[in-house]
Structures are given as structure tokens and as C-alpha cells.
Amino acid sequence: MRRFKCRVTVTRLTGYQYVLSPKRVTEVLIIGEQMSAQTDNRLDFFFRPSSVAVIGASRDPEKLGYAVLANLKEGGFPGALYPVNPKADEILGLRAYPTVLDIPGPVDLAIIVIPYPLVPTALEQCGQKGVPAAVVISAGFREAGREGLERELEVVNIARRYGIRLIGPNCLGVIDTNTPLNATFAAGMPPGGPIAFMSQSGALGTAVLDMALAGRIGFSRFVSLGNKADVNEVDLLEAWEDDPGSKVILAYIEGLPDGQRFMEVARRVTRKKPVVAVKSGVTRSGARAVSSHTGSLAGSEAAYHAAFRQAGVIRAESMEHLFDLALAFAYQPLPPGDRIAVVTNAGGPGILATDALEHAGLQLARLRPETVEALMANLPSAASAANPVDVLGDALADRYEHALRLVLADPGVDGVIVIVTPQAMTQIEETAHVVGRVAREHSKPVLGCFMGESRIAAGIAILQQYGIPNYPFPERAAAALAAMVRYRQEREQPSYPPAHFEADRAAVRKVLDEARAQGRVSIGDAEARAILEAYGFPLPPSRLAATPEEAIAAAEDMGYPVVLKIASPDILHKTDVGGVRLNLRSPADVRDAFDLIVYRATRYVPGARIWGCLVQKMVPPGREVLIGMSRDPQFGPLVAFGLGGIYVEALKDVVFRVAPFGPEEAAEMIREIRSYPLLEGVRGEPPADHAAMVDALCRVSQLVTDFPEIVELDINPLVVYEEGRGAVALDMRLVLS
Amino acid sequence: MRRFKCRVTVTRLTGYQYVLSPKRVTEVLIIGEQMSAQTDNRLDFFFRPSSVAVIGASRDPEKLGYAVLANLKEGGFPGALYPVNPKADEILGLRAYPTVLDIPGPVDLAIIVIPYPLVPTALEQCGQKGVPAAVVISAGFREAGREGLERELEVVNIARRYGIRLIGPNCLGVIDTNTPLNATFAAGMPPGGPIAFMSQSGALGTAVLDMALAGRIGFSRFVSLGNKADVNEVDLLEAWEDDPGSKVILAYIEGLPDGQRFMEVARRVTRKKPVVAVKSGVTRSGARAVSSHTGSLAGSEAAYHAAFRQAGVIRAESMEHLFDLALAFAYQPLPPGDRIAVVTNAGGPGILATDALEHAGLQLARLRPETVEALMANLPSAASAANPVDVLGDALADRYEHALRLVLADPGVDGVIVIVTPQAMTQIEETAHVVGRVAREHSKPVLGCFMGESRIAAGIAILQQYGIPNYPFPERAAAALAAMVRYRQEREQPSYPPAHFEADRAAVRKVLDEARAQGRVSIGDAEARAILEAYGFPLPPSRLAATPEEAIAAAEDMGYPVVLKIASPDILHKTDVGGVRLNLRSPADVRDAFDLIVYRATRYVPGARIWGCLVQKMVPPGREVLIGMSRDPQFGPLVAFGLGGIYVEALKDVVFRVAPFGPEEAAEMIREIRSYPLLEGVRGEPPADHAAMVDALCRVSQLVTDFPEIVELDINPLVVYEEGRGAVALDMRLVLS
Fold it and tell me: Is residue B213 less than 8 Å (CB to CB) from chain A?
């Protein structure tokens, strides 16, 4: 068994369920990463193989091996299909082979549905046969505890040895509706469509396929990822990136082992097509359920939030939301802007739509006077020609046609929601045809909101033929439009590179090495200063003084008033031990402070090494912000920004981004905190120096990227002055790995 | 035409679309209120009449008058049915009469579906005939502009003259599935069920009835309120309060003209059964759409939010949410507590459910050791016996039965969500029967989450037979359970009476009358002090000084330091004109401040009447909060609470309640602001005096209730000291109507 270099510190993994030994766990975690680093075209064999072997194909309709073979056959797979079963000559009219080695021609894809003890041998044979891709449906691996985990490692090693790409184990299988290929044991083949779907949960996959069978959703590709022993979300993103049949990629994610690679790939893919994901295990108890489920490590919510956002991945709040967005992205053009019109035959739902649009952050389009006039000329006098356009309860299809055509032609309209309530005279089906036809005349999104269920169903089915997604209530249509608008806006922004500054890395290296040599992982104010200085942070003049006399001399040099802080490698939280004295205005003040600080420090932390006191020039007051960093096991350095003091502590008003990032991202962080108005200035106060905060955030981003051994960092406070006057880092600490 | 006393000031109504004259508008607004004040049993005739006349019944199937008569007949109305049509002898096999006066027997309910010009005469004839209740379906009234409004007033006057209760005009009609009575022109009769539904939008009603026809929802009563010329939401709440057939009341509301009566009645009704409402026109543009729709006045969002909450009305976020909650309330018992268990055959959806429960504020139940043991004895070893209970993908119905029975029997479980994904071996229908049967053995809510659409549909239909509502995704089931838990908790709290203090009303009356006599509506600090003092507010010593010498004398009496503030009836925002000087520590300070303040005030506000300065003892610093009040046109006095200064202004961190209220409500307000941790104390600070804030809020509540002419009030800041040390109102202003 080969050993790999560990990228995740073992101390982070103590909560893990299957801790065998630190080394082992490390291996499990990086398997996917190691293999998928070889981006190759073997993934194609999962979706467009010329030949498929079903290892474990069965004649017993109760067995999964039967279901998989039957699905492949009934699904119309056009290539060669080889049942493998040592006890049968023929299954479902196809010649069966005792092992994969007995198959005469080449095999592009093996589907393995045999009891877990037999899987290693079968895979070994696949390797000997030269099979490039295998789906292991069989369960009994990592999800089944410690022994299962060992088995999974064995299987992965075989795959790696032979260069086989592997989906699963413990999964539902793979579908490609274009090939067509249905290598799952699900009930039936879902309708085709431009949506590619990957799921870490196979059962959720069955529910989703069952929804698809009802006709509302069509898939291009479907993958149940199972335990993700090899192929994971990142591989599929890459495989689907240029697939012309997949217009939108959906993912149900419980955990991502290599968050940084996910971000890197997703950043690229989301520029080409939307990626929408549900990330579960968000809450504390949810995360517990995840780890008892597939044993995946759930990254912290804040990290996922930041990472998805930075990578352009659209986060759906629920599976329902996921499909609501998918339908809009799959079947409708992106809106050129955020100004939405509503055409309705009912006032109440029009109001609901208006509320929903505003709630979703969209604009109610203002129609041009020409549009309003033309509407008025074609609608009864009681109708409303302003947006929402109310064609009235007795509107027939022709009135909808007039209104929709005029509204779509208005250059001030970027998208339309068409509401139809089934009133006495409503021509539901004709209206659906009209909406479908008129929508095709323009390249703006049109979403249906045909409300009801019984009479309205026929209309919804017609809309679907035209590729108009229907939402039962206006709120859901508005949410889908809002996601489209945001996606388009984000995609149109250039990719901003991370900021880069000249920095004295050697100076930092020296401090870190010294601390490490002394066995210290905590870097307090005095040393942290040197590090920040090397990265160009503005700091107040300051000097370490070993005696009261040195402190006075330093104060005289820099000028009063000064601050004294305890300097000790053993004391990180200085205020807790009375280790900080502010506003010292004379030599006597400094002497008293020095003695008091040192006395208290030795009393509160007996045995602490005391270097003396840091004398620091007292800076004028300003607005205090905090910049922090901690390392997320999945995504790496997570930089935090918030107002300092009570705002961060009591109000939890803080935002995160994964480093490295550039000034654009930093500026967004600053604007995102709830207390941002306080930085803009209230009651006539001038705004705080935005550029200085952006600069500080970017320097932290670079520092923690350059030195991965820094696992925590706190600058609290960074005192920010008014626009143009900069900022000063007053207090700081670091923790090393 | 009678004139009524106006309760809503006309200045509030300038945005109203149909302003005829101030007096007229006033009348329109209070019609509903005046009539429904006579709570009577005439409303029963709308739902259980012995005889119904359809005025405008038609033989032409294209006409609404045909649809209404056909619905009544086909709906199985058991009483006498009289078509009224001067041009026909017989319609749908029923004898027709030229007018309602020609009908031989008594008529309990008239349904009027004739062109609007004929409505007044028809209603007049109903009056002569002694008909107690009429539904006017005809449109062409208030919604049709100025002339329509005149017509509506005429119709209402006729109804009032004869004592006829009236639903509509411009509505879809009325349904009672128990009678059964379908007096609408909707397509078909919805299935019966324990849900009563009222809608201000008729079209939304058609959509809802169409949903019901598909079978998921059953109604007891359905009313389309139309223009609410007489019968409104409050009347229906009262009529349905004791209806045994209605277990839950749903309402779609665009605006409530008499919010205070709504609160009074809803407070009572929600103690008996849940009332769930969608209030639309929430956002700014939504509210615009409301006023162009039925011309109802949308109250401010904050007022509706506070009023619904105080009255126990559950606010649904969308129509979808409304029905999700309705189904749970209608068919399942209330949970005894908030500890929820999940039984699932799939890990992924189990995680989603766990996330959703936590997100909804519910607890993931901790199963008793006995339950876990029994589960382990009955489930395969790979199953999870902790909550969520994962019965595994190959679970048949019997495994669900075991698990569900054990979980429901656990005293630590208050409700259960049963998740079923359609996996290869899943017995969907048998499992649905099991869930239905086992749920009946306990009086805890069980909600289904059978996920999928095609294969799963049969299971959902079976669940429905057992009264188990099904939700397509766990998030929606969790939201429904959360609403049930909150409803139960709130219903179990006693009804707290408003606080009552002894107060010197005469003193307040005197100040108000004086201001009014002088034609002033703004009451500044100096006078507002007297008012607050009369209501027992703690205030710092203070005295009005007309000259610098008087100011010095006052300061000497009360002791330095003092504050000087400009005293002028024409200057409300004192700091804007440099009208406040703090921390004056000597006679010289006071003299300088006096002259400077008066000089600046006269310069900034030429012609302002200057009374001199208010000398006020400087109080020690504390935490500053704001208490305010403004009058909402629908709900009356809306009291606001927030942290003072930047928190209210820049962070909009403020909560509202409709006065009068008691200390319990006041305490809730304080805890509800986002910045509450700052009042609790951060960084070792002691908590602020909670009791003093509650006291001040209750005193404001009583003051603004006692004196309706106070339309605005601001105490900003109220300086609050630490626990037990009270609070002091530092600055205050009032505005009179």
C-alpha cells in the first residue's frame, strides 16, 4: 500500500468516526484528491462507453443485478452488453460470461453489483482486462464501519494500480440519456433534458428520478457518487464542463474533501454554465447526521458559504429550490437585467408576485409610455396597463397574447412572469400555447405561474412542451428569476486575480522558525508585529523594553502618550491579566505601569516567561475593525472581517472569504457586514478609510497564503481613520500549526 | 345617506386612489366596521340557508348566472332553490320567478349575478322580501373607479336600511361543503375537509379551489370577500369561531380597514383554533399594486407584523406555506413539545430533515436508551438507532412499523417526520398504510415526507386517507411542525392584560389643551416633560430659565454639572441648531451656553418663539435606548423600541408592538432586538435594568392609549442604568393630531 503526503493536519480529525491511526485516516481523506489530479478522458467511459459488462448480472428479478441489466437493455443502450455471472449462460437474452476476462471484445465500463467480499477480485479482473472505468454499486464499504473502510482502501488500491476510474462504492449507478445508458437499479429511465445531476446520496437520487419520471424534469446525466472512493464532485464538474448536452449542473453535496480544488475547478466551470448545489449538514445536528451517514467530514458552514460564493456556485436552500432554479436555467435564456414584468388575469396573485420580486431583490419593470399606450389600446378600460399588467379575469388567450407580446418587446423589460388563474372563462390551454409561442419570439426569460392543479394541469403540460417552466406560486418563479439575474451579473464580472504585494518573506520565516525552534506555536504581539511589518502593515511606533528605564527612554523617543503591554510568549490574552495600560503621559506613569503589569503577569501566570513590556505610541481613536483568519480543513485559510469589539463578540456580525483574494472581494466583505453603515459614517461622521481596510485584508490574504503554517491570526483592532488617513494595526496574535 | 364619525384622519389618506372628498372617503373606510359591529346570527344564512334565490340565474351556459345555479344544484344544496329571471319560466328544471318578491316561500340567501346597474333594485326587493343575507357577485363597483364607488355606497345603504348582511360585491361567491352549498361560479365543488378559507382575491380563490379539486386539500367553508362593502375578515372570524366543521381558518388578506377590531376578535379566535394568514402588499411595490387593485389601504408592514403576532395570527410567507401549515393543523394533533424524531430509509434526506428542523427552531429528539435498544433489536446492524432513525434503503413496511411505533411511544418525542424514498425494494403503499395506522395509535403529529412523484403518488394518496399530510421535501414538513409547536406554546400562555398605572391625566390634558389652544401640534422637551412626569416617568431634575441669571440659579439649586437645551415651541430638533450644551460645570459655563444657544437658535430659525433654556441636571452615562410611537391608520398606536443613537438610525434595529400591551409583551420587545446582547452586557458589563425598560414601555403604552390625540412620541434617549438602578428619560417630543 502506497503512502501519500498528508495535507490535512491530523489534529483536525479527532472527531472523525473511523480513526484507525492518524496515518490511515489521512490516506482515506486524500484518495479522491490524488487520483482525480490525473484529469483524463477515462471519465468519458462512464457516459459514452461502447461496451458495458454487468458483473453480477442476475436472472432473479428481485436482485439488483437483474435490475441494472434490465435498465441497460430497456434503456436502449446501443453498444455491446455483457452480463457476467459464473452460474448462467444467458440472461435477458444476452450471452453471459463467467468472468470479465472471458468476454471476447474490449469492455469500456464495468458495473459491479456483487456482494462486497467478491468486489476486489472482480475489480482485479477488470484491471487485467484493461477496463478503464467501473461503477461499484455494491455496499459494505466505508459506510459499514472500520472493516468496510479497510475494504474500500483495498478496492481503491486495485483501481489505482490498474488505472481504473471508479464511481462508488455504495451507489445507485450512472445514467446518460443521450447515449442512452441507464446503469442504475432505479425504476425506469428518466426523460432526457439539459440538466446534469450528481448526488452524494443515492436514495435522494431515487426520489429525484421518481420526480423526473412524472415528467417535469429531464436529465442529460445522472450520477450517484456513493462513497466517492475515487470519482468525486470535482471530477464530474470537469467531465461535464464541456458536455454540450448539459446546460446546467446540479449537485447534492454532504461534504467536499478537497475544497480548494473544488473552488479552482468550479470557478472555471461556472463561467461556462451554472452550477447549483444543495449543501446539507449545514446546522450542528445536521453535521452530526452527516458524519454518521457516509463518514464525510463536513466543513464549517461559514467556509462553504464563502467558498461557494467565491467559486460562483449557486447555493439552493432546499431540493425544491434546486429544481426550481434548474428548470429556469435549463430551459430559458438568461435575463439581460433585473427589470421584471408580470402579466396576470388576477389582481391578488399580481400583488403576491410584486412582493416576491421585491423580496428577491428584483425590479418591477417600468413600462415605456409607448408600451402602456399600446396596452391600453388593446385591453379593456378596467385593465391595468402598468406593471403588473392585469388583463382581467375574463381575459381570453388573445388578450394574453397582445399583452405578452407588447411587454416582451419593451426594452425596459428583462423577463416576464405570466400568471394564469383558472377563472370561469379562462382558456387555459390556448393561453399556454400563446405564452409558449410568444416567448420564442424574444430572447428574454418567460416563466409560467399557472396557479391551481386540476383544470390547470393541461396548461402546464403545454407550457412544458415549449420549454416554459411553471411554478405553482409567484414566489418560486421570482426566486428562480433572481438566481438567473445574479448568475448573469456574476459571470459578466471579470475574474479578479488575488492581490500581490512585495513582502519580506525572509523576515517572517525567521520569526516563525525561531518560535518553532523554541517549541512555541503562539506568537504574541511583540513578534507578530515583526511579521505584519514585513508584509507592509501600518503599525504604531513601538519598542520592546526589558526594564522601566528602557520603557521610559522609548516613550521619550516616540513622544507621549504611550501604551504599555506585557510582552510574554506565554500570555496571549493580555487584557485578562491586566497586561495593558493606556494613555500614559509621563515618565512616572510609564514606571508605575511597567511595574504593575509585570507584577500582575507573574502573579496571574506563574512561571510565565516575561520579556518585559512593549511600549507603543498611543494612536488617536478611530473606528475599530477586526481581521482574523483560521484554517478550514476543506477550504484552507478563511479570512474574517467585522467591526471590532462588541460588534463581533455580541452581535456576531462578521463575514468570511477563502484566501487568496483580491481587492474586489475584500471590498465586498466590508460592504457585507450588517454594521457597514457605521463604517460609512452616521450623524455626519466622515466615512472610514475604505482603501486602507481593503489593503489590510489583501495583505492578510497574501500572508496566510504564503505561510500555510500560520493556522490562526487576529488583528484586533485595526484602527481605521477617516477616508485618506489610513489605518493602524494595534494588537495582533498568530498561532502556528 | 347617513354620515358616520370619522376615526381615521384624512391627512393619512392622500395616497388613496379614489379620493372624492375627505368625508366620502371616510365613509367608505368605515362601512364594514359600522355594520359588523352588530354581531348577529345573520352570517349563518350565508352558510346554512334553508332557501337560496339566484337573482340573474340564466339558461345560457356561458353566463355566470348559469354557473352559479348549476353549482348549487350539482353541489347538492338540500334546501329550496329559486332562479330569478324575468325572461324565463324555468331554468335547469327549476321554476323561475320574475323577481325575488314573486317567490312564494321565505328566502334566506340571495345570490346576485346581474349587471351592476340592476343591483340596487334587486337588493331593494330583497329587503322588501326580508332576505337576511346576500352575496353580490356582480362587478362594476369600487374596483371600477369613482362611479363604481358611488354605486357601492348606494348598495351598502340599501343593505343597511333593510338589515341585510352582504358579501361582495365583485366576488366569486360562497361555499359550505357540509350544508352542502356551492354558491360560486367556480368550476366544481371542492372536497370537504376541516379548513375554512377566506380570500380578498376571487381569482386566487379560483386557483385555490382548482388545487382542492386535485384532492390534496378539503374545505369546510370558502368565501371570496370581494370589495368587502359589508362582511369582512373580522365578521368571518367571528362566524367561524365556533363552527365545529372548521378546525383551522385561512385568510388571504390585502388590507384590513379596522385593524383594532381584527386584533380584538383574532386574539379570541386564535385561542380556539389556529388562524393562518397571507398578508400581501408587503413590499413597497406590492403595496402600490394593492391600491390599484381593490383600493384597500395597506397598513405598514411593521404594524401588520406586530398586530398578527400579538393577536396570535400565524403569518404564512406564501400561499404554498399557507396550505402546508393548514394541512398539518387540519389533520394532525398539536405536538406536546418541540422534540421531533425522523424515521427515514435514506441518509441524505435524513440530514436535510435534521438541518430543516434546526433551521425551524425545533429540537432533534433524543431517544431514550430503552427506545434505542428496542430499535437496535429490531433493525439490521447497519441501521442507525439514533435520531434520525435510518431503517436503511432495503426497509420493507414492517421495519418502518417497528421503528415508527417505538419512536412514537418514546416520551421524549413530540412529533415525527416519516421520510420514504422510492428505492428498489421500498413497499411504498404498504408503508403508507403502516404510517397511517401507527400514527392513529398516538396523539402526536406524524407528517409524511414521501419523496418523488411518479411511483410515490399512490403512497401519498393512501397517507391522505389516514389524514397524514405529505410534504415533497423535509424542509416544508419541518416548517409545518414548527408552526404547530409555536401555536401550541402561544395558546398555552395566559392572556396578559395591558399594564395599568395610576396617572395624572388632568395634568396631561392641561398641557395638550394649551398647546392646541395656541394652534401648536409639536410638543417639545419642556412641555413633554410635564406629560411624562404625570405618567410617572423618571426624569432628571430640570427647570425652564428665561434668562442666563435664572439658568445659573437653577444650576446652583440642582448642582453642577448641568445641561442646557433651547426651549422653543418652534424648534423640535434641538441639536440641529446647536441647541444643546452638555457638561456645564460653573456659572460662567452656564452663562456662555445660554447666550450661545439663544443666539444660534434665533439665527438658524428666524422668527422662532424662544422661551429660554431648559436647565437639566446632567445624569451619569448609561446605555441609551429609544422608545417611540406613531399611529398606524389600521392598528392605532404602534410603539417602537430599539437601542438609541446609531443602532436605530444606521442599523434599523427596532421592534414594534401595537399598544396597549402589558409587561410580558414589553419584555419580549426588548429581547427581540438584534442588539439585545448589548443590553445583557458584554465584556463583563452588568446587564441593563430590564424592569426599568419594561416599565417605561408600559407607561408609554398607557399614555398613548389614554390620549389618542398624541399621534407621535419619541423618548430618545432613555438612559438605562445597570440592574436595579433604573432609567431616566433625557429627551422627548410629541406630536398631536
Answer: yes
Residue B423: closest CA among chain A residues belongs to which residue?
Answer: A206
- A283 touching B (Cβ < 8 Å): yes
Q: How far apart are CA A145 and CA A116, in angstroms?
A: 13
Instruction: Say yes or no: B265 contacts chain A, CB-CB below 8 A.
Output: no
A730 is in which domain, residue-wise? 623-736
> How sure is the predictor about B192, in pLDDT bands with cuts at 50, 70 and 90?
very high
What mean pLDDT do residues B146-158 have? 94
Give the three-class secondary structure for A734. Answer: strand
Task: Test B201 with A349 for CB contact under 8 angstroms.
Answer: yes
Domain boundary among B617, B650, B679: B617
If asked whether residues B629 and B515 sit together in one domain, one would say: no
- How close are the terminal C-alpha atoms of chain A, in Å? 28
Residues 300-359 of chain A with CB under 8 A from chain B are 317-320, 345-352, 354-359
Angle between helices B369-378 and B397-409 (to 10 degrees): 170
Could you tell me the CA-to-CA distances from B664 to A104, A434, B639, B668, B704 in Å, in that order?
A: 82, 57, 14, 6, 18
CB nearest to A347's CB, from B201, B214, B282 = B201
User: What pLDDT does residue B652 have?
Assistant: 79
* Poorest-pLDDT segment among A40-44, A50-54, A428-432: A40-44
Range A562-601 burial, b when 16+ CB lie within 10 A, else e: bbbbbbbbebeebeebebbbeebeebebbbebbeebbeeb
- For residue B350, list chain A residues with Cβ-Cβ distance below 8 A: 289, 293
Last residue of a domain, one of A594, A617, A640: A617
Could you tell me if B389 and B513 lie in one domain? no
Q: State what percent of residues in chain A have pLDDT above 90.
A: 72
Residue A37 is predicted with a pLDDT of: 40
B60 contacts in A (CB within 8 Å)?
none
Contact state of A203 with B288 under an 8 Å Cβ cutoff: no
Query: Is residue B499 in a domain?
Result: no
- Cis status, amide bond into A474, omega within 30 of 0: no
Beta bridge partners of B713: B629, B734
Q: Do A203 and B674 touch (CB under 8 A)?
A: no
Look over chain B and give the mean of its residue pLDDT values, rounded to a whole number: 89
A513 shares a domain with A486: no
| CB–CB contact B282 A350 (8 Å) | no
Residue-wise burial string across B465-498, b where 16 or more C-beta atoms lie within 10 A, e elsewhere: ebbbbbbbbbbbbbbbbbbbbbbbeeeeeeeeee
Phi, psi of B52 (to 5 degrees): -130, 130
- Residues A38, A129, single domain; the answer is yes
Q: Evaluate whether B35 touches B258 at the Cβ level (below 8 Å).
A: no
> Which chain B residues contact residue A453 at CB under 8 A?
210-211, 213-214, 216
Whether A210 has its CB under 8 Å from any CB of chain B: the answer is: yes
Domain co-membership, A340 together with A321: no
A293 neighbourhood in chain B, CB within 8 Å: 347-348, 350-351, 390
Grid cell 463583563 is found at B684
pLDDT tens string B270-318: 999 999 999 987 665 555 555 444 434 334 788 999 999 999 999 999 9
Chain B touched by A487 (CB under 8 Å): no
Q: Are residues A418 and A293 in the same domain?
A: no
Please state the domain count of chain B: 4
pLDDT at A294 over 60: no
3-state secondary structure of B137: coil
Tell me the pTM. 0.88
Of the candidates B67, B346, B645, the beta carbon closest to that of A204 is on B346
Q: Among A319, A358, A424, whose Cβ lies nearest the Cβ of B284?
A: A358
Residues in chain B with CB shorter than 8 Å from the CB of A209 are 452
Q: What is the ipTM of this complex?
A: 0.86
**Partner residue opposite A204 with nearest CB, options B214, B348, B456:** B348
Q: Are residues A531 and A475 in the same domain?
A: no
